[in-house]
Amino acid sequence: MGSTLFEKIWRDHQIREVADSEYLLHIDRNFLHEISGAVSLKAIDEAKRPVRNPNLTFATIDHLVDTEPGRGMTSKIPGGIDFMRELSARVGPHSIRFFDLDSPDQGIVHVIAAELGLVLPGTTFVCGDSHTCTVGGLGAFGWGIGSTDSEHVLVTQTLLQSRPRTMFVKFDGTLPSGVFAKDMILALIGRHSASGGSGCALEFGGPAVRQLTVEGRLTLCNMAVEFGARTGIVAPDDVTYAYLFERPFAPSGHNWDAAVAYWRSLPSDPDAVFDAQLAIDVSRLAPQVTWGTSPEHVIGVDGNVPNPAFIQETVSRRSAEQALAYSGLSPGQPILGLPIQAAFIGSCTNARIEDLRLAARWLQGRKIARGVQAICTPGSTAIKRAAEAEGLHRIFLDAGFEWRESGCSFCMSGGAGGEAFAPGARVITSTNRNFVGRQGPGVRSHLASPATVAASAVMGRITDVRAVGAH
Looking at residue 469, what is its pLDDT? Predict the structure, then answer.
């Protein structure tokens, strides 16, 4: 019997079995940000423990920093500046590569890990952030860890892990116009619930996945955790290799040839057996928009808000009822045409150069609706620089968007007392979570693709991009 992609990565990194179903794994890359990094480095410093292999650990500032133009080391989040200063002070003595705010490579962890070539097919990759699974878009096994596990990795370059079940998610067909990777993953979560992949290592495959760019694959894997999964992975192929070629930290010369030869051995064998399988045909998929307070509360933009009374499972029904109350919506209400007060393009889900280009196609030559606050936060300083070289920033600014610095920004800081939208605002957003208060007190967040966000900002209401011409 053949092996799955995940099984091959696990086998190549397994050091030994410690207990029943508990294994010690080698960790190829450990990434720190100002929350996880400050806490874990402080702990090992106080214990007088060294970092075992500083060359395999990297750090950046992204979660707590303000993103207003011309920002310095400032944060609206209580204690945020202290975390940033703590990380800055502690990385140097350990010789950890640090992408500080003045670095041209600074950005959101899961964005810069890919664009710098720090994450490679077949590697293990950890960070103190639940969306570390994003890097699976390059064929890596990435997952989020807590501060205690981060300390263990820093000191030993290993981690004790239970082996997850495997699941293959096949996306058949060809994506229709106006439908993107974000819509694919939202449709999966909506169809099979936010716990549908509980604890599994997902492999995304099928014709629709093969047609995606690396950026699209990263988006797909980013929200594997919103499906309850441990991680999400896409098998590497020629698209992957072309993306990684000549990235700053990618192999080069003879090492590149050897790496590609290994990467080509990684895809799941034809006779590999998964513990579970799911399939979705995307041929008639509509752009997706969430209506409630979980990514599973999602419908096609041309659909109607469901009636909780028809949900048999008690917990899900109560969750839907509470979500409707928070969102200020009624059963049977169309999501299309719902007025919005704000729009946001950013986060580790959808703030790459491809996402900004996509949104610009719907913004060029247009103005956002009166009364709508619209903000774009590029996923990295390099992406911001590339977008400005292409003139994309002028399209956003001319349309009425705020053009900001790189950082997590409104994806998470609103719930922590940082950058936030007006209390009670209804926001169309390219982020990954629509939890209660995620983008500010009482803020109702509707997840969607960057194209849907841009078109909705122009119209001032949730809009079907298929009905609005792109430039």
Answer: 82
Question: pLDDT digit string (tens) for 396-441?
Answer: 999 999 999 999 999 987 777 888 999 999 999 999 999 999 999 9
Which DSSP symbol is given to 64? S
- The CA distance from 184 to 169, in Å, is 11
**Dist CA 235 CA 132 (whole Å):** 17
204-238 per-residue burial string, b: 16 or more CB within 10 A, e: under 16: bbbebbeebebbbbbbbbbbbbbbbbbbbbbbbbe
pLDDT value at position 331? 97
Q: Reduced to 3 states, what is the DSSP secondary structure of residue 243?
A: helix
Taking only the tens place, the pLDDT of each residue in 182-199 is 999 999 999 999 999 999
Residues 18-53: tens digit of each pLDDT: 988 899 999 999 999 999 999 999 999 999 999 999
Q: In whole angstroms, how far apart are CA 361 and each of 156, 276, 356, 366, 386?
A: 48, 39, 9, 10, 16
State the average pLDDT over residues 328-344. 97
- Tell me the residue ranges of DSSP E strands in 163-274: 166-172, 201-205, 231-234
Whether 392 has a pLDDT exceeding 90, the answer reads yes
Across-strand partners of 32?
59
Q: For each of the domains in the chain, give its residue range(s) and CATH number, in order of start.
A: 5-161 (3.30.499.10), 166-281 (3.40.1060.10), 288-467 (3.30.499.10)
222's torsion region: left (phi>0), alpha (psi -120 to 50) or beta? alpha
Alpha-carbon dihedral angle through residues 158, 121, 142, 223, given to the nearest 10 degrees = 180
- Whether 59 and 91 have beta carbons less than 8 Å apart is answered as yes
Q: Which helix (H) or strand (E) holds 13?
A: helix 5-13
Outline where 328-371 has alpha helix (H).
353-363
Residue ranges of alpha helices (H) inside 80-179 are 80-91, 109-115, 147-156
> Sign of torsion, CA 456 376 29 48?
negative
CB 172 within 8 A of CB 281: yes
